[in-house]
Amino acid sequence: MKEISIREIEGFRIGNASDIKGGTGTTVILCPEGAAAGVSVMGSGPASRETDLLDPKKAAESVYGIVLSGGSAYGLSAADGVMKYLEERGIGFNVGQGVVPIVPSSCLFDLPVGDFNARPDSDMGYAACVDSETADYVPHGNLGAGTGATIGKFLYPERFLKSGLGTYAVQTGDLKVGAIVAVNALGDIYDADTGRMIAGLLNEKGDGFQSTSELMWERAQTDFDVFKGNTTIGCIITNGRLTKSQCSKLAEMAHDGYARAIRPVHTTADGDSIYFLSRGDAPVYQDALGDLAAYVMAKAINDAVRSAAGAYGIPAACDI
To answer: How far, in Å, CA of 305 to CA of 297, rounded?
Structure first.
């Protein structure tokens, strides 16, 4: 197995649009030829669109893009711009007189980080699609959906940390699998390989980290009003040959990557969601791919916090 760039996975394009001053942005994963797709939502406060269509019992067999965005529920309008971009190019579900692009979307809560009134809109979604046409950079750090992302918010508005967008991809034989994720978690971040805490809730001196889990355990019998604006949103892409039903199950398995790298995770104050897209013909042993998807997702989460830079008066892990 070898590490590759996520851009080496054929059939997909990734683009970003960012409002750096406003502290928000949009990331798109386009699949112009269509892709089998599944989703798993394990957080309690998701902001999402078209996720019901990904239920294996529903008729839609392909999607043409996924939108990961800031702006909380306001940011769902970014998908309008993605649909416009795809319709202009005749990409989508053929309905006779035209096409209807199927574009599921999930958003994270970044409204307090920069300008509360700065929100991804249709124009930003369209701009992210245009960016995907020529983008050759590694998509990570303070851009796209990760522009206003933060972590370690159990004591918010104190002692939290700047996060961002992260990616990681590998190839084994002909099979390629990659993850892209915007990390906006209540909890702390742990190294996928060593289990060591690498980012999260700052200690009282601000020169290191304190375990959110341990602090929560101490308050297990108190009525603590924790900050609700947390959601980690991500997507796995692969050239493996999968059905819609398999993608749905693999999206669930990919959440193990969240659990490996984020603690605590899937809380009532998070809206954690993962999409899983398949476009290709590489043979797949499903359970092996599920385990691999969890690994690349955990590594992408690590990349998100390691590549983030301090912004909006919030330090990043690189500053500690």
So the answer is: 13
User: Does residue 131 contact residue 17 with C-beta atoms inside 8 Å?
Assistant: yes
Rounded CA separation 42/279 (Å): 24
Between CA 4 and CA 148 the distance in angstroms is 27
- pTM passes above 0.85: yes
Residues ≥6 apart with Cβ < 8 Å to 153: 160, 185, 186, 201, 226, 227, 229, 230
pLDDT, tens digit, 9 for 90 and up, residues 13-23: 999 999 999 99
Task: Identify residue 210 by its one-letter amino acid code.
Answer: Q
Q: Mean pLDDT, to the nearest integer, of 255-264?
A: 97
Contacts (Cβ under 8 Å, ≥6 apart) of 227: 153, 154, 156, 157, 186, 269
Spatial separation of the C-alpha atoms in residues 78 and 134, rounded to whole Å: 20
Q: What's phi and psi for 168, nearest 5 deg? A: -160, 140
DSSP per position, 220-273? TTS-------B--EEEEEEEE---HHHHHHHHHHHHHHHHHHEES-S-TTB--E
- Count of positions (residues) in the chain: 320
